[in-house]
Amino acid sequence: MGLTEQVTAVEAGESGKASAPEYQGALGSLSVNASLTDVLARGVEELRAAESAGDLKETARCSLAVAEACRRLGRTAEADQAWKAGYRAARAAGDAAAMAWALWSGGTLARQRGAFRLAYRLLALAAEWGERGGDVVVRGYSLAGLAETGRIQGDYAAVEELHEQLLAEARRRGEARHTVWALEGIAQMHRNTGAYDRAHALFEEAAEIADRAEDRRGWAWALRGMADVVSVRDGDVEQALTLLSRAEAACRTMELRGALAFNLKMRGNVLYRAGRYDQARELYTRALTEFRDMAEPRGTALSRLGLAKARARLGRDSAETAAELAVLRTELNRIGLHHARDMVDKAAAELGVGPLPGPVPRAAAATTPPDAYRTEALRATDVAGLR
């Protein structure tokens, strides 16, 4: 049986409910909807017990849960320490699958922190070690991570096919959580290219699947996407805000700090489009504070852009607006956030302050995502910071 034909107990989804394969070992009974504070407390407790017992495999499993809880809570330095510690334990135990999970966590964190080259490197390695270890789940998660990294950068041509392939595989396996993820990624690309009806339909389908599977995280992200579309396509402010309020409630239950910050930023977008610039400015400011505190560059940049636009509409000097947008565009180009960089140019035109001074050529992508996982994987000892 080939790797892509394998179906593990986690992925089979016999109950039709979403599962959390990143919670393993002593933490395997935790729900995908568990409070992250609770996950972290339990993870630290079990990690200490595993370390005391000298159980390297269990140490790696518990470190993974700790790393993911810290990452989603915005505690990025602790997340970085945890995934690396988990990788070292897995390597010492000779557990290829556990090594892959640690690398997936590290790659996901790298993307969250805007380190796209490192994200590609770690996620490609995670996919390779997942295949070596015979773990179809972590391999799928790693390929999905590569696709998402390219999508976030705006390299849609490179990752659209990979998204579609992963969606087809998730549907075939009946894996609700990954089906929802893939639908939302494809929907976001359609939304960003102006295919609003298609985007809304995909977000709506994702929300329905997530709701049936009791995947509150995926459900909340789908509602946020729907809110964006009904705002930009229909101008329906109240419907958009209602959807965002429902998503916010779910995110607060799980303490999804990043998702809550993006919810704030999206509320700002909705109110900005409605001409309610004072309220939009307040929300962008709050979102910016959250993203900066989490060291999350993409959210920081998008909030800065929204705030600059709101301030411009409220009478800020046009030269100051142009200068700020030029700095932001340069920063986005440096990071590799191509789609967001293009949004700055559109904002400058919208506000009548463009073209911006000092044109910056679009930076090349860190790597082509579909190629990244097909290339020969780097040796584990070559991973930065793990020697």
UniProtKB/TrEMBL annotation:
SUPFAM superfamilies found in the cross-reference section = TPR-like
Q: Which domain of life is it from?
A: Bacteria
**InterPro entries, per this entry?**
TPR-like_helical_dom_sf (IPR011990), TPR_2 (IPR013105), TPR_rpt (IPR019734)
A Pfam match is: TPR_2
Keywords, ordered alphabetically: Repeat, TPR repeat
SMART domains in the record, alphabetically?
A: TPR
Which protein is depicted?
Answer: Tetratricopeptide repeat protein
Origin organism of this chain?
Answer: Streptomyces gougerotii
